[in-house]
Amino acid sequence: MNYKKNSLFIENISIQKIAKKFGTPSYCYSLNKLKLNIRNFKKYFRSINPLLCFSVKSNSNFQILKEINKMGMGADVVSKGELIMALKAGISPKKIVFSGVGKTFDELKFAIDKNILLINSESESEINQIEKISKIKNKKIDIGIRLNPNIDSKTLKKISTGKKEDKFGLTEINFLKAINKFKNSKNLNIRCLSVHIGSQITDHKPYAKMLKVVRSVIKKSNHNFDFVDLGGGMGIKYNKETKKLDYKKYNSIIKNFLNKYRTKIIFEPGRSIIGDTALLLTRVLYIKKTSKINFVILDAAMNDLMRPALYGSRHEIMASIKSKKMIRKKHEFVGPICETTDKFLSVPKFQTLREKDTLAICDVGAYGMVLSSNYNLRTKPSEILINQSSSKIITKRQKLNNII
What does the alpha-carbon distance between residue 30 and residue 26 come to, in Å, rounded to a whole number? Predict the structure, then answer.
């Protein structure tokens, strides 16, 4: 996404043209940026050759998953619905891991029937449930057990998953108890140690601490794991101030770990693959001026993009036509929903704007459309895939008749 002669483009199409053709709000993805991100991720970790399982919860669009499959990635799923969608997109069951703290009996049974690579369990009760199903089906099931390493990932509290007070995984003591209890099971094969400490991580140091704990726990368990699933969580640059993760250092830490433990590494990247591939196109409905603030009221709302309201996250906003003339007054970009939290961004100044102008909310590919809702009985936006000079709808705009 860049400006060409002051007009904002996604690949070779201006966002004004896209907005005129498909309407707003609309999610627009760059196919070539998606492919570049996957190639770069593979390059970062080429020396360790990991299995890459895309985090479907970050973006579950069918066409996006098909493109990800073409690039050789597997899938990390957290529900039966995501598993069905991954399989429908052509992803091999042997490249799919099933994570999550609350898998139902039906979901576990379905995953077992589909012969996926791993079910990553997060409680002793769930392992008991899997063993029960496997006995009924007279099968031996490959599982992983998720460790909670009690590591602070130094990210947003609401997306931290690796501290002892978080609901995810087993503490070290309970992890080791589970290994001892189930390692000789006739119906379970414990093949993986799984761990994931959070999302939007931009510093390699929490990962280094995580691997130190993993190394210690493997030694104490005296168990040979075929896989170590290190989760994902790699952050992206949402703004100029955001630090970028040093992949070279992270790769070096993992290589050092693999010198002692010969195992296959699994990654579950989501945001780092899809996050910066998309813009949310929106129009200015009204500009309401007060003595201190210009409220820029958009046709996009928190039901279209939940992250700012849910996490307090920051997404930059770009105008479709770049202007050098700045208004040095606070601008607050808000949606039409009847909630004070329905706002996207506050800035001390912004370029001149007019009502009906097209804007782009940046870096919305991850946890954008998947978190959308019908709050205030609003329809969900369309999704558009851009490939150089071509564009196609990959999700139709919802119609009110379909939900009323």
Answer: 13
Positions marked catalytic: 338
Q: Could you give the number of structural domains in the chain?
A: 2
pLDDT tens digits for range 271-320 = 999 999 999 999 999 999 999 999 999 999 999 999 999 999 999 999 99
Residues 9 and 65 in one domain: no
Count CB atoms within 10 A of the CB of residue 125. Answer: 8
Question: In 348-387, which ranges are E strands?
Answer: 350-351, 358-362, 382-387
Q: Is 216 left (phi over 0), alpha (psi -120 to 50) or beta?
A: alpha
At 153 the pLDDT is 53
User: Which structural domain range is residue 375 located in?
Assistant: 2-29+275-403
Residues 324 and 376 in one domain: yes
Average pLDDT over residues 35-49: 97
139 and 58 fall within a common domain = yes
Instruction: Identify whether residues 63 and 196 lie together within a single domain.
Output: yes
> If DSSP codes are grouped into helix, strand and coil, which group holds residue 160?
strand
> Which token pair is 114?
């589909």
Give the torsion through C-alpha atoms of 243, 247, 249, 250, to 10 deg: 110
pLDDT tens for residues 133-183?
Answer: 999 999 999 999 999 998 875 655 554 555 566 778 899 999 999 999 999
CA angle 234, 236, 242 (to 5 degrees): 115
